[in-house]
Specification:
Residues 70-135 form the J domain. The protein is mostly helical. The chain has helices at residues 2-28, 31-41, 44-48, 68-74, 83-97, 106-132. Mean pLDDT is 76; it is low at 46-63.
Length: 135
Amino acid sequence: MSNFKDRFVRAVRANLNDVLDRVKDFEQRGGFEKLFDSIADGDWEQIGGEQSSKRSSSAGTGSGEKTIREYYANLEVPYGSDLETVKESYRRLMRRYHPDRYANDSDMEELATELSQEITQAYHAVKNWLESGRY
């Protein structure tokens, strides 16, 4: 039971730290005053302009790279989960979406191939990120 409690506490801390980072970022960008001024001026691009790429941990340096949060979502585990949980989810998803399961249906086989590639990419990105100690 303590293993579950430890994982839960780590996940809650990671999510809380993310919320605090987002609040600090919002305040640094002007907070509600700037938001209301933008609404009054009709400048909607100003409101949603800066994406979360600055705030989120990124898996790589390329502009088209996904964030670690998106990889966690692809693996269907909460952000901040430990490596063992990530491995279990990866194996479960690969059993579900392995292309060999859909060998009789070519459309489903193509979809399963794409999904399994995304899942594998997400697993390796999260695994490397966890092993590097950047979390």
